[in-house]
Each structure stands twice: as structure tokens, then as C-alpha cells.
What we know:
Helix content is 73%, strand content 0%. It contains 5 helices and no strands.
Amino acid sequence: MEMSPERATQVVKMTKTIRQHFPELAALSDAKVLYATWRSFKRIDQTNDSDYHTMAKVFFQEFDKNVMEYQLSKNGHEDEMRQRFFAILTEIL
């Protein structure tokens, strides 16, 4: 799947913003955060449902499942993190 230059810019900006607003992800390598961000946008681009709440859920699921091995949801951080993703997405998009 090719990514438009606009989407690539959004991925990079989102990755940088995640780094700033998610201290619980600080131990992750830049490559992992960038890849999870790209995968999240890829999933969003493949659906017709792109409201910010759905997008925030996609980001949370991607990071929780594929990067943090469900540690975020196990620790009860889902609502808080989805709200932060929502805030970032509304700012970036």
C-alpha cells in the first residue's frame, strides 16, 4: 500500500507527538513507535469509518496489542490513552 505524501507527513507528526504525550511508551524504540503509527493509519485508511473516536480506538489497539502486549489494557489505561490519542488526532488532522 502506497502512502500519500500528506499521510506520510501525518505519520511523522503523529509519531513525534506520541513521543511527547505518552511517557509510558518512552522505552520503545523510535522504529517501533513509527511502525505502530504507520500501521494504525494503514488500518484507518482501509476502513470507511474515520471519525476521531474510532481512530483513537485503532491507535490504542495497535499500541496495546502489537507493541505493549496488552499491558496497557491490563493496567486499566484504555480510556485515558484513547482520550489522549483522540486529542492528538484532532490537533493533527
